[in-house]
Amino acid sequence: MADITRRLGWRHLRGAPTAHIRHHRSGALVHDGPGLSFWFRSLTAALSEVPVDDRELAMTFHARTADFQDVAVQATVTYRVSDPAVAAARLDFSIDPDTGGWRGAPLEQLGTLLTETAQQHALDVLARTPLAEALVDGVTSVRERVAAGLAAEPRLPATGIEIVAVRVVALRPEPEVERALRTPAREQIQQEADRATYERRAVAVERERTIAENELASKIELARREEQLVDQRGTNARREAEENAAADKVRAEAEASRTVRLARAEAEAAREVGEARAEAQAAWLRVHADVDVRTLHALTGTRLAENLPRIDSLTVSPDVLTGLLARLGASE
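Now predict its structure.
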């Protein structure tokens, strides 16, 4: 929309670079071009503003396929006004000199023209296409047919319109039909998912079985080695016991031999001592055999005195002294 300001009965218009302004005054073209800025009088001016930028028109319409199924077509047509003079002559792009807004609805007219033309060509191609084929390849075929139809439409160049691009966003069947069509695919996907789950479980079970077998094999090998260890320990124990027994036997034999030798030595020593004592006693007897009895008594008393305990004091009673003197007298 053009920017119009008021100054003392004059109007000033400032247009955008993407808007083509046409200014007629008293039937004569005064200003013509995009992005203009000028003063004018509202009573004598006839203004029109034609947008020359690319415009996108979104459209949605329903069609019926060859097997009588309803589908919704979503498309977008990009267009621009290539000849603003022709467009301003064919459509009402005039603007109010006070507000700068369009007096009519030219873009709506263009939208209706493009929508009806595109819909006509889309219906024509879908009417000869089954639903399954339309859902698979319908977007491409509809886009090509609509683009070709709009390019060949004579009314568009006559109106100064140029088609830039045509895009078909989607072809959607009715919700019930779409759900019915999705069911086999969903079931197949679910089957694939179930099969993948079963395969993962089978792989997991196989891995667990392998792990269990490895653990069992490890336990068996460990048990076998423990058995070998026990056998080796038993062998070592037997060998150690045999060696200890042999050592004990050797020690016992050595101790017995030493004891026998010691006993023999002690017996020999005792025998020699006995013989020596016997010889001493015999010599002693031989020495005293020829000695007087009184001498023997004296020796006996001396020996007895040597072996008696020490006497600190001696009390001699008359009876003891009388008996002793009697014995001495008798001996004389």
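The beta strands are 3-7, 10-14, 19-25, 28-34, 37-40, 45-51, 55-64, 70-81, 161-173.
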